[in-house]
Amino acid sequence: MVLWFRRLACACGIVAAIAGGTALCVQAADAPPVTPEQEKFFEEKVRPVLATKCWECHGSKKQESGLRLDSRDSILKGGDSGKPAAAAGDVDKSLLIEAIHHRGDVQMPPETKLPDNEIASITDWVKQGLPWPASSPSASLALSAADRAAAAG
Q1: Residues 6+ apart with CB under 8 A from 60
Q2: In whole angstroms, what is the distance from residue 26 CA to residue 77 CA?
């Protein structure tokens, strides 16, 4: 039923966009609506960081420490620690934010700290409540090698 609702919600959003209206995509019944501005921010600033710096170890193929960062639900579920990776809207309670700032025992990515602008984007995204557009493809359709190189460059 939820999958059907997601498809319907996105189909309605496409129709509204074609008709010149404003649409909000909803990921699931418990996820807040995603505004067009949040969707653009996610696709331009957040997804490229997650895809190029996180999903290799925390995606659909591999889950170090039992953690996946390829969906909002997975981030809220967390990994082996039993705690959510991020608390929607609360950076102070988000392990992800602590890890990308290289504070504490867990530092991600482990070899090199993210650039300040990428840390700022992820932090802002958590403050926004982790909006994850329903119309976005899943992480299993992650960026191609060319896209990753362009995003990293």
Answers
A1: 68, 70, 138, 139, 140
A2: 19
pTM of the predicted model, to two decimals? Answer: 0.72
Residue among 140, 145, 136, 133 at smallest CA distance from 34 = 133
Nearest to 122 by CA among 147, 60, 113: 113
**Which residue type occupies 35?**
T
Residue-wise pLDDT tens digits, 53-62: 999 999 999 9
79: left (phi > 0), else alpha (psi -120 to 50), else beta?
beta
Q: Where are the alpha helices (DSSP H) in the chain?
A: 2-18, 36-41, 47-53, 55-58, 72-77, 95-100, 116-127, 145-152
Residue 58 identity? H
Tokens of 123: 């932090």
What residue type is 54 in one-letter code?
C
